[in-house]
Amino acid sequence: MVIALRLCCLSMIMTQVSLSVGTKTGYRLFSVTAVDKLDCIHEGVECPDVYIVERLFSSSLVVVVSLSMPRRMNVYHFKKGTEICNYSYSNNILSVRLNRQRLVVCLEESIYIHNIKDMKLLKTLLNTPTNPSGLCALSINHGNSFLAYPGSATMGEITVYDANNLSTVTLIQAHDSPLAALTFNASGTKLASASEKGTVIRVFSIPEGQKLFEFRRGMKRYVSISSLSFSADAQFLCASSNTETVHIFKLEQHSPSQEEESPTWSAYVGKMFTAASTYLPTQVSDMMNQDRAFATVRLNMFGLKNICALATIQKLPRLLVASSDGFLYIYNVDPQDGGECVLVQKHRCQVDQKEEENPENVPPQPPSQTYAATVALPTTAPSSTTLMGYSEDGGAQKGEVIPEHEFAEGPVCLDDENEFPPVGNQNN
């Protein structure tokens, strides 16, 4: 994709502002604890050409898939330097999603659901609609573990599946065109979606599947939405694409009482448009009733793969954009008035590049204790003593995977609350 870092993939976890980067030489895990500080907490070189890397929140568990073995998923405990397990599948792995209860592997026409505590394969969803991009979303709330994936290859239907109870919850007719992006809010009670056209973004209630909001990203051209992400409180939703603009939408209901309290000219015109829309064709009236972006960002790049996320860093709302050109951009967001967001920091996601580019006239941020300072990174070799793993029909095969010492004091422990900060808001 990019010459600078030769990035293969990007992913962000906003519960503690973590960035995972797959590269030609392996993968890197970063933590953002302050605007002016991007800490590389681990660099993995177990396998090259990593195109999928997913970390389980703030724990030591990381899932890696390499171009050299695209049908094999490796799960590592990066702090101990050990491989927990690996699984091989019948086709190339397109995406991996995980929370503290489930690990989901998506292939083009099938989905595999594992119990993350022991990596046992619980369910295989075979003959799912063709999904060449591996599009799916898993709620980070392990209390419900809702899984969303395309229910059709030709239209924008969403299947919502309960990965805890292993049953289908609902089907949502979200768009006329095939799906391009899906994301849950932190509690798993809202689901946002966009189609391949990229002009309209919709938000649905979960598990009911009722439409709550509808936002128009643009009208002039079709775009490819590359990421959607809710803020932690689900009050905002950001969307990035292959264009130079990132949009932030505000999820608020406009009550009639608010309009009566502010009888302005714009409110009067808005009522006139609403009344007129009832006499217009459905497509036109829908367009008139769609909300526009609350805030925007103009990137200095075009056509590059990027992901965006909203987070609170040093008690202020920020928009983070990680791009395949090897940079992480941090913007200030005005939660009251919105408008154009201001770039405050630009980081290079490269270990040997310590210098950071700071926009002109941006005041330095106060120093803070880094998350990396609390993490020890031993480099012990993986254990050669292994036990035969679990296997189940349906295309998944697990090899000699689980180190015997992991069972010395009970089942494999993948949650590191005693070693790492607990999952939640860890920003200053």
From TrEMBL:
<keyword id="KW-0446">Lipid-binding</keyword>
<keyword id="KW-0472">Membrane</keyword>
<dbReference type="GO" id="GO:0034045">
    <property type="term" value="C:phagophore assembly site membrane"/>
</dbReference>
<keyword id="KW-0732">Signal</keyword>
<dbReference type="Pfam" id="PF21032">
    <property type="entry name" value="PROPPIN"/>
</dbReference>
<dbReference type="GO" id="GO:0034497">
    <property type="term" value="P:protein localization to phagophore assembly site"/>
</dbReference>
<dbReference type="GO" id="GO:0032266">
    <property type="term" value="F:phosphatidylinositol-3-phosphate binding"/>
</dbReference>
<keyword id="KW-0677">Repeat</keyword>
<dbReference type="InterPro" id="IPR001680">
    <property type="entry name" value="WD40_rpt"/>
</dbReference>
<protein>
    <recommendedName>
        <fullName>WD repeat domain, phosphoinositide interacting 1</fullName>
    </recommendedName>
</protein>
<dbReference type="GO" id="GO:0006950">
    <property type="term" value="P:response to stress"/>
</dbReference>
<feature type="signal peptide">
    <location>
        <begin position="1"/>
        <end position="20"/>
    </location>
</feature>
<keyword id="KW-0072">Autophagy</keyword>
<dbReference type="InterPro" id="IPR036322">
    <property type="entry name" value="WD40_repeat_dom_sf"/>
</dbReference>
<comment type="similarity">
    <text>Belongs to the WD repeat PROPPIN family.</text>
</comment>
<dbReference type="InterPro" id="IPR048720">
    <property type="entry name" value="PROPPIN"/>
</dbReference>
<dbReference type="InterPro" id="IPR015943">
    <property type="entry name" value="WD40/YVTN_repeat-like_dom_sf"/>
</dbReference>
<keyword id="KW-0853">WD repeat</keyword>
